[in-house]
């Protein structure tokens, strides 16, 4: 396994990519040609496609058939839900199971009211940023974090800081 890691590191360095992105591209190579074509056509987004790459060949075949319909859209939430249900079913999802998951309407994140310390509110006011905008920024950051678009900027130690507030 060390050779794979070194190879990924070399490729990442050569093309100015992160090792994580290189790893994701390697996962994409495991998709059938039909699904890879859909990624190329931007009908299936990059991160959901990476998540799909963990499915069995039979399940990927079902996905490819279902996604032939231009009306069918797949989100990261759909794919995560699929993986979750797949684990529960022991890797034996049927076409009906997959269709039911695809037909689910993703729920939007419910915003929570947050109260900011006066010092923070004053600093935000200096930049002409309204507190409700901060809530929107936090919601956007959390969505991007869930989608894997950004890394957790705060790390584990930030959890302790937020719990103390």
Number of domains: 2
- Extended strand count: 0
Range of strand content: under 5%
Please state the CA-atom Rg, rounded to the nearest Å.
20 Å
- Shape verdict: extended
Provide structural commentary.
- The protein has helices at residues 2-14, 19-28, 33-40, 46-52, 57-67, 76-88, 95-103, 118-126, 131-147, 157-164.
- It is mostly helical and 165 residues long.
- The protein has 2 domains: 2-97, no CATH class; 118-164, no CATH class.
- The N and C termini lie far apart (43 Å).
Strands, helices and their partners?
Layout: H1 2-14, H2 19-28, H3 33-40, H4 46-52, H5 57-67, H6 76-88, H7 95-103, H8 118-126, H9 131-147, H10 157-164
Question: What's the gist of this structure?
Answer:
With 165 residues, this protein is an all-alpha fold.
List the defining traits of the structure above.
165 residues, disordered C terminus, single chain, mainly alpha, 64% helix, 10 helices, 2 domains
């Amino acid at each position: 396994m060390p050779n794979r890691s070194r190879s990924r590191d070399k490729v990442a360095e050569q093309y100015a990519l992160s090792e994580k992105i290189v790893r994701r591209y390697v996962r994409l190579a495991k998709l059938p040609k039909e699904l890879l074509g859909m990624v190329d056509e931007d009908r299936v987004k990059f991160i959901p496609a990476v998540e799909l790459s963990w499915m069995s060949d039979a399940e990927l075949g079902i996905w490819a058939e279902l996604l032939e319909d231009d009306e069918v859209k797949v989100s990261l939430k759909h794919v995560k839900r699929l993986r979750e249900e797949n684990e529960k079913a022991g890797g034996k999802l049927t076409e009906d199971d997959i269709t039911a998951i695809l037909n689910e309407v993703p729920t939007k994140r419910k915003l929570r009211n947050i109260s900011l310390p006066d010092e923070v509110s004053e600093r935000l006011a200096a930049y002409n940023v309204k507190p409700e905008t901060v809530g929107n920024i936090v919601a956007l950051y959390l969505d991007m974090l869930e989608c894997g678009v950004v890394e957790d900027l705060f790390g584990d130690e930030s959890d302790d800081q937020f719990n103390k507030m």
